[in-house]
Amino acid sequence: MRIPRTSARAISFFGPFGITVLGGVLGAASGQAPQTNTPPAATSLPASVQQEISKVESEIDRIEAQTLARSRHAPPDPAPRMVLLGKLLMYDKHLSVNRNEACAFCHMPETGFTGAISELNATTVAYPGSVRWRFSQRKPQSHAYAPFAPALHYNVGQGDFVGGNFWDMRATGLRLDNPAAEQAQAPPLNPVEMGLPDAACAVYRLSARPYRWLFEAVWGKQAFAINWPADVETICDTPAPAASSDPLPVHLSEVDRGTAQRTFDAMALSMAGYERSPEVSPFSSKFDAVMGHAAKFTPEEQSGYDLFRGKGRCNECHRDGGPGEEPLFTDFTASNLGTPANRAMPYYGEGAADQHGYVANPEGLGFIDTGVGGFLAWAHALSGQPNPDPDWTPYAAKFKGRFRVPTLRNVDKRPY
Ligand code: HEC
Ligand code: HEC
Q: 155: helix, coil or strand?
């Protein structure tokens, strides 16, 4: 696997910088008695990480500017327009509370649409949010080929869950019939990712973007026909989560709330449309060419493939196609591989209230990521919808510790 699960390097990474947010993690990683619930006090990351972050940020700005220029000559057909809109949305940092984190921040093209910050990949595995000292509990998946996942369902014959997005399948796709679209609604509102306190904030921010005309051209003029309260700016500049006494802090009329939700759906569907498009999911690898009899494996590649399908049995989960089936290198089920917890992840140190009074991980070092079982039992999720089907709840124990089989496409791409 590309990313070490137990990272000895984490010690040398954080050690010299004395980052207190990671104090508890450091204790655990270096084999000392684990400190519990070290208060996150750091507001800055090591200079070397900051440098890599700046590089990724300016690359995102460059791609956004280039895409904006292209959008001025947007094709008249709604489908390609939606794809272009989806790309603009995914490179737009204004969808995050501090206007510093686009989706692409954790999903860059040069690494096959997962994170491109090498030092983080080698150490923290997870990525910082718009509030920079908040890290999530998981590694960014690639979003390429994600829209090819079916909506989550329980296959009675196989006794298995199939489909959905996210490591724990919780973006089911049941509401929009599109798991990738429902996935795209989670990061903007996740306190440890893009951190907006209300879906209406995403809509409000979009209404002021230079590509608003394209959004309206694809989805209709009603998209932003909303009466905004006077305090909307202040509220949307306040990091999530909203107070539990006021979970939708942008106070809208019922009709405006409905419009905002539909526009938020349209945003998500556009993003999923871009993820599905040939620019992100092109089926143009050497493997595809070999399957199309347009290229040949080298002898080394051939023996790797034979192992993959033979003795290695990799294709039992990372399906490489079959009759009527495209090779996506996943069967959209979930497995428990027995991989141990990686105590070097900063999430374990996020057990106390941060500067905004938010506790990301109330369990501290006691946190265990239970994957699909956690979703079915509705525990531990930082974002997304709860288990929508009470009939699924009894399976929680059986699916504890299982994680979605990821696609292996682009898995070994590196920025440099
Ligand atoms: C701070 C980093 C970060 C940002 C920003 C981010 N993601 Fe992700 N992404 C992740 C992580 C981590 C996961 C896995 C999370 C989980 O399983 O709970 C993920 C998972 C996904 C998946 C699921 C892939 C699959 O096969 O199931 C898709 C699709 C995706 N992200 C797209 C997006 C989109 C669209 C946005 C912007 C709206 C976005 N991401 C913003 C880190 C990020
Ligand atoms: C029983 C099903 C199963 C089999 C068999 C299997 N895998 Fe996996 N694989 C998974 C799951 C599930 C994950 C994600 C696990 C996690 O994150 O804890 C994974 C993760 C991976 C990753 C990391 C991908 C990423 O995005 O970080 C690679 C690479 C990989 N597998 C390659 C292989 C190879 C090569 C083989 C054969 C030797 C193989 N797998 C056999 C289920 C399987």
A: strand
- Ligand 2 neighbours, Cβ below 6 Å, are 1-2, 312-314, 316-318, 335, 337, 339, 403, 405-406, 408, 411
Question: H or E element: which one contains 194?
Answer: none
Number of helices (H) and strands (E) in the chain: give both, helices first.
13, 4
Rounded CA-CA distance 111/410 in Å is 7
Residue nearest atom 43 of ligand 2, based on CA coordinates: 317
Which residue lies with its CA nearest to atom 36 of ligand 2?
314
CA of 184 to the centre of ligand 1 (A): 7
Q: How far apart are CA 371 and CA 160, in angstroms?
A: 14
Atom of ligand 1 nearest to the CA of 406: 26
**Residue 241: cis peptide before it, omega within 30 degrees of 0:** yes
pLDDT of 133: 93
Does some domain include residue 36?
A: no
Predicted pLDDT of residue 77: 93
Q: For the chain, give the mean pLDDT.
A: 90
Could you list the residue range(s) of the whole structural domain that residue 339 is in?
47-404
Confidence of residue 416 (pLDDT cuts 50, 70, 90): low
In a domain, 154, yes or no: yes
| Length of the chain measured in residues | 416
Tokens of 284: 């143009």
Element containing residue 276 per DSSP (H, E): helix 254-276
Q: What is the CATH number of the domain that holds 347?
A: 1.10.760.10
For the entire predicted model, the pTM comes to 0.92
